[in-house]
């Protein structure tokens, strides 16, 4: 499988002709399939590399199993080339950012010195952004079917030949990706979420790129760069020596090279105070440099030095998938100041935020925390934790926050309480949820955006112990038949949202704090319970990570009493933008003491069938069938309005006494 493939001259010439003729489409396929975490420049180069290396070698040996002509190969020259491009792109999609960085050195053709490349705005990057949360096979299936126009069975065959684990599921998920106008919570169309119809044109492709030079001065002074880097590392060593205990630190090797000037406090990027009000990119890049110690060069030098060459005595926390290597360029300063006996520095480096803390007098006890910030926005870039002291925490709020308050999620009827905020955007100490013990309260932040960027917009953030708080949202029940468009997540501030969150809030402590971006409660169905049990709501709580996949918990909320857990799944697309079809079921005991098998499906489900210990059918989105007291395994399947089948989230439901 790992040996190179060799083919006759005719086959290679045919492959070359196909690559030349179909080059823009093949590069588009590779670009969208490759992981977005590698950055647009690297992604463009890897896409061209995958296509150019799809040309097989000539030689005497016949084709092997992993090249064109192998047992899983579709056979035609274009399909063979597509398989090779897919195989290379899917393999790289499974690698981490660090692995991709290693693949780029030493550079292999095509390589570009002194330039940064990226696709033009509004073109292929629109597709890449639309599919950011989908898996690599789904992204590939989307391009092959929706853009290249291949039939579903051909896409399945190509993905299977390229080594995709479940090509049929990938095609189904690609078909579920919304490409037309979607609606915002108020029912207004959101054109920015629509897939541009012109993307089928050849010019909208990753093979059309914009180019800008990298740092010209550094390349002109290349001879002096080595000396400058050595001097920077010497400064790091001096800083660590001056602020460490008497014994010499056990320094770790650098996680990566330090760019020239990246450790110089004078070269930190500082954004003007009002930049957030005059930009369409409202995220961490619009935060100004704030804090009473933003001009303290010694503090900033210690923060940068500790980051670049850590001692093993420096505790480090990082969200999953967040690199902790030194900066490749001068980072952006977000904050530097004192609070609760600690000095805090917040820095932004590309798609990550770094928090450095030390004792206020600079006498050691340093800590580092890293968090991902890619694709952040008005809500997910609204606050950063400055640190905890006991059961309280302070936060640095975004400059576009006009009003702040606190709310107890477990008490749906209580109003939000005002929270004091300093001129620098630092909140007064506010209570944080307890990590263990009784859970009778769950404090959360309720923030309101400035009318300068959005009108009447309030939202809720929860502190799970990480650097970035988690955005809480709510998706209400569908209000009509299957023809009604799917509803979008809303802010968790309305009456229905607070009522849905109240019985679930304490379950947030089960989530890992680091790496969670948002948590949404989706009320996907309601059904009448047997024996006069009242009307119950079926909900799916999804914790979405910055990396894309998320964990889900399906519950049944009866009219009274606590919710009943129905199903769990980890690292799944279910209950999210790319998992909008859901079926779940559970055993339930009625007030009369009788057992029933219950099931419910999302808005597109038109029929449900139970087999196994319970055999029953139902037309519609819910099922309630008598079940024996002893229980037993039950398999649930459903039918969608499109005619496709669906299985229960956990595959089967078992008896529970």
Written description of the protein model:
By secondary structure, the chain is an alpha+beta fold. 22% of the residues lie in helices and 27% in strands. The strands form eight sheets. Strands 14, 15, 17, 18, 19, 20, 21, 22, 23 and 24 form a ten-stranded mixed β-sheet that branches. Strands 7-11-10-9-8 form a five-stranded mixed β-sheet, covered by helices on one side. Helix 2 runs antiparallel to helix 7 (136-147). The two termini are 51 Å apart. The model is unreliable at 1-7, 59-74, 96-109, 181-198, 221-232, 239-256 and 651-657 (pLDDT under 50).
What characteristics describe this protein?
single chain, 657 residues, alpha+beta, ten-stranded mixed beta sheet, five-stranded mixed beta sheet, 13 helices, 31 strands, disordered N terminus, disordered C terminus
List how many beta strands DSSP finds: 31
List the uncertain runs: 1-7, 59-74, 96-109, 181-198, 221-232, 239-256, 651-657
DSSP strand content: 25-35%
Shape: flat
Summarize the structure.
The protein has 657 residues and is an alpha+beta fold. It contains 13 helices and 31 strands.
């Amino acid at each position: 499988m790992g040996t190179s493939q060799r083919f006759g001259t005719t086959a290679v010439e045919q492959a070359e002709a196909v690559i030349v003729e179909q080059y823009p489409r093949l590069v588009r396929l590779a670009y969208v399939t490759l992981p977005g975490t590698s950055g647009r420049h690297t992604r463009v180069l890897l896409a061209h590399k995958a296509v150019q290396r799809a040309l097989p070698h000539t030689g005497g040996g016949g084709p092997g199993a992993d090249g064109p002509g192998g047992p899983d190969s579709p056979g035609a020259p274009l399909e063979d080339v597509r398989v090779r491009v897919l195989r290379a792109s899917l393999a790289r999609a499974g690698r981490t950012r660090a692995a991709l960085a290693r693949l780029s050195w030493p550079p292999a053709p095509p390589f570009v010195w002194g330039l940064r490349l990226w696709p033009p705005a509004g073109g292929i990057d629109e597709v890449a952004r639309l599919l950011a949360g989908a898996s690599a096979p789904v992204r590939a299936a989307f391009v092959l079917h929706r853009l290249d126009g291949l039939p579903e069975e051909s896409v399945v065959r190509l993905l299977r030949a390229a080594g995709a684990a479940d090509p049929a599921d990938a095609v189904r998920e690609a078909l579920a990706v919304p490409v037309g106008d979607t609606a915002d919570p108020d029912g207004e169309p959101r054109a920015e979420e629509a897939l541009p119809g012109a993307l089928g044109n050849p010019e909208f492709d990753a093979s059309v790129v914009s180019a800008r030079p990298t740092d010209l001065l550094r390349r002109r002074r290349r001879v002096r760069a080595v000396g400058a880097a050595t001097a920077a590392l010497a400064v790091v060593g001096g800083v660590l020596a001056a602020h460490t205990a008497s014994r010499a630190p056990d320094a770790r090797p650098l996680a990566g090279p330090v760019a020239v000037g990246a450790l110089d406090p004078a070269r930190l990027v500082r954004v003007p105070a009002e930049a957030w009000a005059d930009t369409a990119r409202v995220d961490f890049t619009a935060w100004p440099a704030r804090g009473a110690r933003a001009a303290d060069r010694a503090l900033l030098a210690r923060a940068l030095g500790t980051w670049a060459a850590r001692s093993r005595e420096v505790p480090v926390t990082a969200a999953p998938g967040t690199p902790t290597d030194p900066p490749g360029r001068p980072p952006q300063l977000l904050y530097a100041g004192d609070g609760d006996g600690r000095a805090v520095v917040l820095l932004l480096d590309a798609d990550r935020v770094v928090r450095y803390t030390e004792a206020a007098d600079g006498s050691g006890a340093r800590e580092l925390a890293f968090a991902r910030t890619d694709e952040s926005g008005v809500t997910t870039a609204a606050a950063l934790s400055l640190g905890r002291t006991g059961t309280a925490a302070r936060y640095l709020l975004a400059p576009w926050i006009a009003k702040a308050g606190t709310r107890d999620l477990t008490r749906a009827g209580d109003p939000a309480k005002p929270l004091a905020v300093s001129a620098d955007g630092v909140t007064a100490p506010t209570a944080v949820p307890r990590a263990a013990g009784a859970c009778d309260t769950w404090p959360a932040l309720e923030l309101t955006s400035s009318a300068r960027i959005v009108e009447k917009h309030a939202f809720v953030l929860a502190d799970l112990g990480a650097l970035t708080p988690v955005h809480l949202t709510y998706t209400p029940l569908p209000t009509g038949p299957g023809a009604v468009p799917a509803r979008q997540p809303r802010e968790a501030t309305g009456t229905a949202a607070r009522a849905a969150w109240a019985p679930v809030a304490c379950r947030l402590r089960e989530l890992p704090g680091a790496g969670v971006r948002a948590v949404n409660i989706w009320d996907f169905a309601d059904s009448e319970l047997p024996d006069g049990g009242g009307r119950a709501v079926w909900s799916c709580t999804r914790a979405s990570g910055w990396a894309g996949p998320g964990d889900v918990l399906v519950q049944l909320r009866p009219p009274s009493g606590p919710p009943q857990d129905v199903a769990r799944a980890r690292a799944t697309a279910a209950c999210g933008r790319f998992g909008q079809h859901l079926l779940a079921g559970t055993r339930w005991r009625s007030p009369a003491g009788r057992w029933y098998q219950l099931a419910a499906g999302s808005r597109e489900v038109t029929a449900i069938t139970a087999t196994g210990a319970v055999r029953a059918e139902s037309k519609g989105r819910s099922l309630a069938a008598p079940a024996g007291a002893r229980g037993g395994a039950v398999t649930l399947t459903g039918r969608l309005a499109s005619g496709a089948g669906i299985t229960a989230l956990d595959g089967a439901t078992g008896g529970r006494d």
